[in-house]
């Protein structure tokens, strides 16, 4: 048997770059969607149901503020878009700002949140992760393939007919499963089976804002376990409805490959839904985002969410450029059809020199629609700059203009990060340095020595070194919401992943591509996130008593930071060593996570104390936790960094006095070994600081015993130590490691100091 999946965790979907849209941008009539949290017990007895109470309240507040009963926007289900009862109690509705403000003061209303619109973040990985060996042993077999666990996926869609979702050889659906298989266009109820055990879709929030769905362009059906993403995006009200259903259905793990702007946790629908899931014992993993390689781009940063960045595997798809002067320039591509003649060189031209139609030098360089001159392009390989339109769309522009091939060149900001795409014509992608080399070669050409090239496709290459590397697109820290919590938490395979692909879309993902394929090669942190979701399910199967925080701790403290050369993992965008803001605790190591030795567990009370130490108000905290909080003790006891997290992030602001600054962290670890154990601490001290651990030795006398320690950090003033420019940041990292002779339990230490303004 194996994990009962609402969606296969290792073979997933296309996930384009992350972004968020404020639903004010797509409102009509001055209204927008609001999510309203209420006190369940505040319902007046005169109302027979909560839904009746909600709808009456919405109608009344709209009349009192907007002046007419008709001003409350009606959805296909009435005045309400969704009602919620599992992750919290409340509803979503279309309201004017005045009505929303008035509603926030009604008795029993805990919070009124404006909706965000989010975007999806769009083989070999089982063996690369050590899940399955050649003799069929490994973590998958050792955990009985996660028997009787359910992974719920909140995402864009699947194609259930694919072999990835076959239930051949699987046991019965878990008896605890309470979910349903909702039928829809192209999705009969019989599409569910013993692997894809249930499916739902949520579109009311989308349609309330964007109007009725165009069913000729998308399917009103559950092509995912909990489908929330549509043409116009993924709407908070629908995402919360999916969380609500998943918790009620009885999932064990939720995998979330969508994200948006980082806002305070009490305004973040994903953070709110994930907190309720964690309270129900459900592990939630979410994509870190595809906004890298810039800093402060990480999303889904709540500490009760496992935030997953993306790395490479030891496999790539080389497609090199051979220039007319004999030089070979490395590139990558997935060849989707006939290639170029390997023994022939083709004329080579830079797109900026082929202005045509509606183009100019800039639009032509990017190979935008109708920007190329067919007379200049015909029969040539065209160099296009990356940016603005999609990578595959550039190839289509070149093909329509008569080009025989394309070289897609990164710009300076893109760096050296490459994604293997399946284009509509022979094409390859090259890094920024290689792009410069090719452009200079073209610029130096003459009528007597014209620029020529071909593309050499080499198929699949295994055993690539170095691996893993941090993917260029993978979003980076520091955590923009609470820098005391290091994010991302870790990375997993997310670059060039084999994934099931739907019948209705060609592998290039553009309308003109009429080819059809069962699988495709995809990249994104949304490829990485489901890997961790699947690993969490395996750990839950092996250790049913572990909490979501304990599973996260096991994954983080056993992660590795060295590649297959035994050197610090590289940052794909620069070729230099990566750091903790790139990979968090490191790359997941499933085998070691099975037996981590020690666990940093976190209770719901700990999370409440964390929120108190963020100086959230009682109302803010209640909007997340559904209960009042006593912050008096929490704020006396420490700071937000004292959450029992498996990493340490110290944040200092230099006051210009030249004095050193210090802080401390208190942590409690649980011995989950088979007997007593003695763990001794060692510290890799961040440069320019002093770190002390008290005590340096933890003596456990029995399994399950908890012991606490303190980590003290003292750092020199940034301006004095490094002569930093005003307001700039100094970042130094190290690690704390506990060893008992058999286990190695590691946690990153990062010190961030801002120089005086």
Automatic annotation (TrEMBL):
The active site is at 155 (charge relay system), 183 (charge relay system), 526 (charge relay system). One of its GO terms (biological process) is proteolysis. Residues 642-751 form the Subtilisin-like protease fibronectin type-III domain. Residues 1-20 form the signal peptide. Residues 33-119 form the Inhibitor I9 domain. Residues 347-438 form the PA domain. PROSITE patterns: SUBTILASE, SUBTILASE_SER. Belongs to the peptidase S8 family. It comes from Elaeis guineensis var. tenera. This is Subtilisin-like protease SBT1.5. Residues 146-575 form the Peptidase S8/S53 domain. Pfam families: fn3_6 (PF17766), Inhibitor_I9 (PF05922), PA (PF02225), Peptidase_S8 (PF00082). InterPro entries: PA_dom_sf (IPR046450), PA_domain (IPR003137), Peptidase_S8/S53_dom (IPR000209), Peptidase_S8/S53_dom_sf (IPR036852), Peptidase_S8_Ser-AS (IPR023828), Peptidase_S8_subtilisin-rel (IPR015500), Peptidases_S8_3 (IPR034197), S8pro/Inhibitor_I9 (IPR010259). The keyword Signal applies. It comes from the Eukaryota. The lineage of its organism: Eukaryota, Viridiplantae, Streptophyta, Embryophyta, Tracheophyta. Keywords: Glycoprotein, Hydrolase, Protease, Serine protease, Signal. GO terms for molecular function: serine-type endopeptidase activity.
């Amino acid at each position: 048997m194996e994990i009962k999946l609402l969606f296969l965790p290792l073979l997933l979907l296309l996930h384009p770059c992350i972004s968020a849209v404020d639903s004010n941008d797509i409102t009509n009539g001055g209204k927008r969607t609001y999510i309203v949290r209420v006190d369940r017990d505040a319902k007046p007895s005169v109302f027979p149901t909560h839904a009746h109470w909600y709808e009456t309240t919405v109608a009344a507040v709209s009349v009192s503020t907007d002046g007419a009963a008709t001003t409350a926007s009606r959805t296909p289900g009435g005045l309400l878009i969704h009602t919620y009862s599992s992750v919290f109690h409340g509803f979503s509705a279309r309201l004017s700002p005045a009505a929303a403000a008035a509603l926030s003061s009604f008795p029993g209303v805990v919070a009124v949140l404006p909706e965000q619109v989010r975007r999806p973040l769009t083989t070999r990985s089982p063996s690369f992760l050590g899940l399955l060996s050649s003799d069929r042993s490994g973590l998958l077999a050792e955990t009985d393939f996660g028997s009787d666990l359910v992974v719920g996926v909140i995402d864009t869609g699947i194609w259930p007919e694919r072999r990835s979702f076959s239930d051949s050889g699987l046991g019965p659906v878990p008896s605890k499963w309470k979910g349903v298989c909702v039928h829809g266009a192209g999705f009969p109820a019989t599409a569910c089976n013993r692997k894809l055990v249930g499916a739902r879709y949520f579109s009311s929030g989308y349609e309330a804002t964007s109007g009725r769905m165009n069913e000729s362009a998308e399917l009103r059906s559950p092509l995912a376990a909990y489908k929330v993403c549509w043409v116009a995006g993924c709407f908070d009200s629908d995402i919360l409805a999916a969380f609500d259903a998943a918790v009620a259905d009885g999932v064990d793990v939720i995998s979330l490959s969508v994200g948006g702007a980082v806002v305070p946790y009490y305004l973040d629908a994903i953070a709110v839904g994930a907190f309720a899931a964690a309270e129900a014992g459900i592990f939630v993993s979410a994509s870190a985002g595809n906004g890298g390689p810039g800093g402060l781009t990480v999303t889904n940063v709540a500490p009760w969410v496992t935030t997953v960045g993306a790395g490479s595997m030891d496999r790539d798809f080389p497609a090199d450029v051979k220039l007319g002067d004999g030089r070979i320039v490395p590139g990558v591509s997935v060849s989707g059809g006939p290639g170029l003649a390997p023994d022939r060189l083709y004329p080579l031209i830079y797109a900026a020199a082929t202005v045509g139609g509606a183009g100019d030098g800039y639009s032509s360089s990017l190979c935008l629609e109708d920007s190329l001159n067919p007379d200049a392009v015909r029969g040539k390989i065209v160099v296009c700059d990356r940016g603005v339109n999609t990578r595959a769309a550039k190839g289509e522009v070149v093909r329509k203009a008569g080009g025989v091939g394309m070289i897609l060149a990164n710009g300076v900001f893109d760096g050296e990060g490459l994604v293997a795409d399946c284009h509509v014509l022979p094409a390859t992608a090259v890094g920024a340095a290689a792009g410069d080399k090719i452009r200079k070669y073209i610029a130096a050409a003459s009528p007597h020595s014209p620029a020529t090239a071909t593309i050499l496709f080499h198929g699949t290459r295994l055993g690539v070194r170095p691996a893993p590397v941090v993917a260029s697109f993978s979003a980076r820290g520091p955590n923009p919401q609470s820098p005391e919590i290091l994010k991302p938490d870790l990375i997993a395979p997310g670059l060039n992943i084999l994934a099931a692909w739907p019948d209705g879309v060609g592998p290039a993902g553009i309308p003109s591509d009429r080819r059809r394929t069962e699988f495709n090669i995809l990249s994104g942190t949304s490829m990485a996130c489901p890997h961790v979701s699947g690993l969490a399910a395996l750990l839950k199967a092996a250790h049913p008593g572990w909490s979501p925080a304990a599973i996260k701790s096991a994954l983080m403290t056993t992660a590795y930071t060295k590649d297959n050369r035994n050197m610090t993992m590289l940052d794909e965008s620069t070729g230099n060593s990566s750091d903790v803001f790139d990979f968090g605790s490191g790359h997941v190591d499933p085998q070691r996570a099975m037996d981590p030795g020690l666990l940093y567990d976190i209770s719901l009370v700990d999370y409440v104390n964390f929120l108190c130490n963020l100086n959230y108000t009682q109302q803010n905290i209640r909007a997340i936790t559904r209960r009042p909080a006593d912050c008096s003790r929490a704020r006396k006891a420490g700071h937000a960094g004292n959450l029992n997290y498996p990493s340490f992030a110290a944040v200092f602001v230099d006051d210009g006095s030249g004095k050193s600054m210090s802080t401390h962290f208190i942590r409690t670890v649980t011995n989950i070994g088979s007997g007593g154990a003695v763990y001794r601490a060692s510290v890799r001290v961040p440069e320019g600081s002093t770190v002390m651990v008290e005590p340096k030795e933890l003596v456990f006398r029995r399994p399950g015993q908890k012991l606490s320690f303190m980590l003290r950090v003292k750092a020199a003033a940034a301006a004095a130590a490094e002569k930093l420019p005003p307001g700039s940041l100094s970042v130094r990292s190290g690690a704390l490691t506990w060893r008992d002779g058999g286990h190695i339990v590691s946690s990153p230490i990062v010190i961030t100091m801002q120089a005086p303004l």
